[in-house]
């Protein structure tokens, strides 16, 4: 689910891929959450998320900048582009920094009958990364996420099931599975408290333990169309990144 630009060992590539792909694609779920929701922008409307993450794990320090632009094609269909930039410092592989891969996605809400709605977000990871910071050039990976949202104000519940397929020569596990669930509580019109947890297949094919993480955070609406968020993510087992701070800003606009 994120410095010299040399080829990394498989273990370092797996760690970088985990940081990049375990920050799942994001609308009021959105940043800093692990779980996607069924919200779409509406025809002609757009949303820009600016997401930052600082991670620490076994003496390694990583920084991920992962902006996301969503544009509403219809009331229930968004097109999404999500590039990434990664900086990683660890005692084994030294300093590595550069562009990571880019997600090109759509999100389609195909069912809605209050309080339940269902959606799918799917697309490709395109190999735009620096050498060793993503997929081999010329190779893309496909992913899909099934999303359910239950809106029972002031609580909202999101649940996700996902799958990603990596190319055989990526050095990563070919089949990656994902599950997550989140609860949001609207404390008032401006403040939302979020609790989230996820588990994923280990991207390192030599390890079988699935990384599991939990997140607590807040989303504050500074004014209509502008949200500021903060979150703290902690690993629940030894396979997960030990700790990660997230900070973001989301801006929405209409024509």
Overview of this protein structure:
The protein has 255 residues and is mainly beta. It starts with 9 loop residues before the first helix and ends with a strand. Strand 11 and strand 12 (191-200) form a beta hairpin. The model is unreliable at 1-28 (pLDDT under 50). The protein has one helix at 10-21; strands spanning 46-57, 60-65, 68-74, 77-82, 85-90, 94-99, 102-113, 116-126, 141-152, 155-165, 175-186, 191-200, 212-223, 226-235, 243-253. It is globular. It has a 12-stranded antiparallel β-barrel. The protein has 1 helix and 15 strands.
Question: What's the SSE blueprint?
Answer:
Elements: H1 10-21, E1 46-57, E2 60-65, E3 68-74, E4 77-82, E5 85-90, E6 94-99, E7 102-113, E8 116-126, E9 141-152, E10 155-165, E11 175-186, E12 191-200, E13 212-223, E14 226-235, E15 243-253
Antiparallel strand pairs: 1-2, 1-3, 1-15, 2-5, 3-4, 4-7, 5-6, 7-8, 8-9, 9-10, 10-11, 11-12, 12-13, 13-14, 14-15
